[in-house]
C-alpha cells in the first residue's frame, strides 16, 4: 500500500483543535445547541460509501462545535473538571498516534516504563510510601473499584477465604465503614464487586462532611469480621478532608484496611503549604486519585495506588498461555488494572509532571485554592449571598437569599441563569437540605481576572433573577 495521507486529516484536526483552544477565552462556556440540533447536524442514515478523511474531520468539528462545553476554559467551575495543559495534550496526541497497547510490557516497553516512572514520581509528589504499586485507570470510579478489589482480596484472605477462586457466596461478610458524605463511586464500586451497598456502615460526619474518628471507632467496635474503611480526602461539595491520620490509626487498630478516595484532595499533598491538611495519608493501604482533574491531563486518567502490591496483583493480575509476560523488572500493567487491552495513559501524565515539576504542581494547587478563597470573599461581601462551607481547598458553596424567603428556588434560578448567560459555568447542589451553587476551581489557566469577571456575572444574574421575580409579583 502506498503511504496513506496522514497530513491532511491530522492537519485539519490540528487546525480545528487550535481554533477551539485559542477560542476558549472568548467563547460561551456552556453548549449552545440542543440535543435535537446536534442530532440533525450529526445524525442521518448510515454512510454507505467512503468519505475523504480530511472532510470527515472538518465536518465533524463544525457539526460538534455548538455542542461542545468549554470545560477546558478558565471560567468553567462546574463539578471538578480541570482542562488539559499543553504538554499533557500534546503527549495525548502522541499516545493516539503511537497506539500502544499498554496491557503488556512486550507490546509497549516505553509505555510500561513511563507508567512505572510516572507512578514513582506521583507517589513521591503526593506523599505516599515509596514502594506502592500503581495502576493507570480511566478515573477514580475505576481506581476505587481496583483498590477495593485489592482490599476485598486481602481482608477475605486473612479470614481464610479465597474470593478470586470462590467468589462471595458463603464468604465471611465484608463490612465497609465509610463517611455518610462519601462519593457515590464508592457504593458503585461495591456493587460491581459483589460486596453490595448494604455492606456499608455509614459513619457520622461533621457539618463540613468530615468523618468523626470517634464515630468510626464506635462503628468498628460494633462490626465484626473483615472490615474496610473508606476515608475521603476532598468532599465534592465542601472540599473537606477527613482526618486521615486518626482514621488510619483507629482502623488499623481494629485490623481494617483503609482506602482513601482522594480524587482531587490528594493533590493537597503536593503543596508544602497545604500538605498538613492530608497529614497521615501515607498510613493508608490504598489510594484513588485523578490526573484528569487537578493535574489537568485529558480524560481518561485516574490512578490507583496500593501499599500492598501482592494484594493489588492478586485482585487484578492475569496469566495466560498465549500472553508473553514481562521479565524481571518489566511491568505488565494488566496486573494492576481491571482492563486487558488499554490506552497508554502514562504518557500524558508523565508529560504533565515534567512540564510542571514539583514547584509547578504546588503552584497550580495553591493558586486554585487561593482563587476559591477569592470567590468566597468577593461573593460573601454581598449581603444577599451566604457562603455555606469553610473554604479549605478549591470548593465553594454559596446560597442566594431572596426577599420572599424562597432561598432554595432563588438559588436554583440563579444557577440556571448563570449557566445560560455565562461567561462562566457553575453547577448546583444541595447541601444540608439547602440549594446551593457549587464552585470548583481546578483549571490550570484560571486567574484572578476570571474570578472577578465571574463574580460580577454571578451577582448580576442574582440581581436580574430577583428583579424578574419582583416583576412577576407586581404583575400577578
Ligand atoms: C470525581 C470524583 C470521583 C469520581 O471520579 P471519576 O474520575 O469521575 O471517575 C470520586 N470521588 C470523588 C471525591 C470525586 O471528586
Give the ligands present. Answer: pyridoxal-5'-phosphate
Q: What is the molecular shape?
A: globular
Assembly form of the protein = single chain
- How does the helix and strand content classify structurally? alpha/beta
Series of H and E elements: HHHHHEHHEHEHEHEEEHHEEHEEH
Number of strands: 11
Give structural notes.
The protein is of the alpha/beta class and 476 residues long. It folds into 2 domains: 89-353, Type I PLP-dependent aspartate aminotransferase-like (Major domain) (Aspartate Aminotransferase, domain 2); 358-475, Alpha-Beta Complex (Aspartate Aminotransferase, domain 1). Helices cover 43% and strands 12% of the residues. The chain contains 14 helices and 11 strands. The protein has helices at 7-23, 35-42, 53-64, 86-98, 109-126, 140-158, 163-166, 184-192, 213-222, 244-253, 309-316, 346-380, 407-421, 448-475; strands at 133-137, 175-179, 200-203, 227-232, 257-261, 286-290, 302-306, 385-387, 395-400, 427-431, 434-440. Strand 2 (175-179), helix 8 (184-192) and strand 3 form a beta-alpha-beta unit. The model has no long low-confidence stretch (mean pLDDT 96). Bound molecules: pyridoxal-5'-phosphate.
Strand and helix map with partners:
Blueprint (H helix, E strand, L loop, with lengths): L6 H17 L11 H8 L10 H12 L21 H13 L10 H18 L6 E5 L2 H19 L4 H4 L8 E5 L4 H9 L7 E4 L9 H10 L4 E6 L11 H10 L3 E5 L24 E5 L11 E5 L2 H8 L29 H35 L4 E3 L7 E6 L6 H15 L5 E5 L2 E7 L7 H28 L1
Parallel strand pairs: 2-3, 2-4, 4-5, 5-6
Antiparallel strand pairs: 1-7, 6-7, 8-9, 9-11, 10-11
Helix pairs in contact: 1-3, 4-12, 5-12, 6-8, 6-11, 9-10, 12-14, 13-14
The protein binds pyridoxal-5'-phosphate.
Amino acid at each position: 500500500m502506498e503511504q496513506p495521507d496522514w497530513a491532511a486529516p491530522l492537519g485539519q484536526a490540528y487546525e480545528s483543535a487550535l481554533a477551539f483552544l485559542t477560542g476558549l477565552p472568548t467563547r460561551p462556556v456552556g453548549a449552545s445547541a440542543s440535543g435535537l440540533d446536534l442530532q440533525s447536524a450529526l445524525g442521518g442514515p448510515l454512510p454507505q460509501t467512503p468519505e475523504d478523511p480530511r472532510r470527515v474531520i472538518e465536518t465533524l468539528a463544525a457539526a460538534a462545535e455548538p455542542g461542545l462545553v468549554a470545560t477546558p476554559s478558565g471560567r468553567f467551575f462546574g463539578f471538578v473538571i480541570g482542562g488539559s495543559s499543553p504538554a499533557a495534550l500534546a503527549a495525548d496526541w502522541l499516545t493516539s498516534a503511537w497506539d500502544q497497547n499498554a496491557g503488556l510490557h512486550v507490546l509497549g516497553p516505553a509505555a510500561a516504563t513511563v507508567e512505572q516512572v510516572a507512578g514513582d514520581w506521583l507517589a513521591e509528589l503526593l506523599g505516599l510510601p515509596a514502594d506502592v504499586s500503581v495502576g493507570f485507570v480511566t478515573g477514580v470510579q475505576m481506581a476505587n473499584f481496583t483498590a477495593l478489589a485489592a482490599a476485598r482480596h486481602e481482608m477475605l484472605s486473612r479470614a481464610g477465604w479465597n474470593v478470586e477462586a470462590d467468589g462471595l457466596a458463603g464468604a465471611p461478610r465484608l463490612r465497609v465503614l465509610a463517611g455518610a458524605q462519601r462519593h457515590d463511586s464508592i457504593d458503585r464500586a461495591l456493587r460491581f464487586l459483589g460486596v453490595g451497598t448494604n455492606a456499608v456502615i455509614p459513619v457520622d460526619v461533621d457539618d463540613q462532611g468530615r468523618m468523626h474518628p470517634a464515630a468510626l471507632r464506635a462503628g468498628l467496635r460494633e462490626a465484626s469480621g473483615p472490615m474496610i474503611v473508606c476515608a475521603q480526602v476532598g468532599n465534592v461539595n465542601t472540599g473537606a478532608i477527613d482526618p486521615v491520620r486518626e482514621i488510619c490509626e483507629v482502623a488499623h487498630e481494629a485490623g481494617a484496611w483503609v482506602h482513601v478516595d482522594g480524587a482531587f484532595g490528594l493533590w493537597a499533598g503536593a503543596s508544602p503549604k497545604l500538605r498538613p491538611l492530608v497529614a497521615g495519608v501515607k498510613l493508608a493501604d490504598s489510594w484513588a486519585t485523578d490526573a484528569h482533574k487537578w493535574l489537568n491531563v485529558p480524560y481518561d486518567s485516574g490512578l490507583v495506588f496500593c501499599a500492598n502490591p501482592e494484594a493489588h496483583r492478586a485482585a487484578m493480575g492475569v496469566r495466560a498461555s498465549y500472553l508473553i509476560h514481562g521479565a524481571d523488572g518489566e511491568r505488565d500493567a494488566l496486573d494492576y488494572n481491571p482492563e486487558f487491552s488499554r490506552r497508554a495513559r502514562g504518557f500524558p501524565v508523565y508529560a504533565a509532571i515534567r512540564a510542571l515539576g514539583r514547584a509547578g504542581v504546588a503552584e497550580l494547587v495553591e493558586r486554585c485554592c487561593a482563587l476559591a478563597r477569592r470567590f468566597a470573599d468577593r461573593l460573601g461581601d454581598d449581603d444577599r449571598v451566604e457562603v455555606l462551607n469553610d473554604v479549605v481547598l478549591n470548593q465553594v458553596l454559596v446560597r442566594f437569599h431572596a426577599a420572599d424567603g424562597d432561598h432554595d428556588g432563588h438559588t436554583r434560578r440563579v444557577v440556571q441563569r448563570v449557566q445560560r448567560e455565562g461567561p462562566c459555568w457553575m453547577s448546583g447542589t444541595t447541601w444540608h437540605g439547602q440549594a446551593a451553587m457549587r464552585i470548583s476551581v481546578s483549571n490550570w489557566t484560571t486567574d484572578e481576572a476570571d474570578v472577578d469577571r465571574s463574580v460580577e456575572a454571578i451577582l448580576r444574574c442574582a440581581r436580574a433573577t430577583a428583579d424578574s421575580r419582583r416583576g412577576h409579583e407586581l404583575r400577578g
